[in-house]
Amino acid sequence: MERTIVLIKPDALQRGLAGEIINRFERKGLKIVAMKMVSLKGKLVEEWYSHIKDKEFFPRVRDFMTSTPVVALIIEGFKAVEVVRRLAGFERKGYMAEMGSIRGDFSMSGGQNVVHSSDSPESANREIPLIFSKEEIYEYESATECLIYDQDEKI
User: Is 51 a catalytic residue?
Assistant: First the structure.
């Protein structure tokens, strides 16, 4: 099974949307294998956003993402990266995001867009160890997996 990471951002946390967002992933049939609240302060925020660290808008992103803790999740499932991206909304700007997606339903902003999700398996593999240690990731079989996946999708 594939794994991806989701950050429930400060705006969602402040608005009390964490439970609703987590619920959407679980109702889809995805499995949470790690979850914690974490502060992205210091080197962590710079490492997380290393791809935009030299952009003029980075200080604004840094200040927003360090304004409160975030809720970090590792989500596992068949084609988890793509499924989570569809649920979150492919469009990053909330005012343009697909209705029915998390961003489309809960965001009106480009920057304050309630969730981050990895955009590829490679990104997920880079991002997961920035937040979680191996000991914080749980291996378990969900009692409902037999109802969610065909046998050939349980890879």
Answer: no
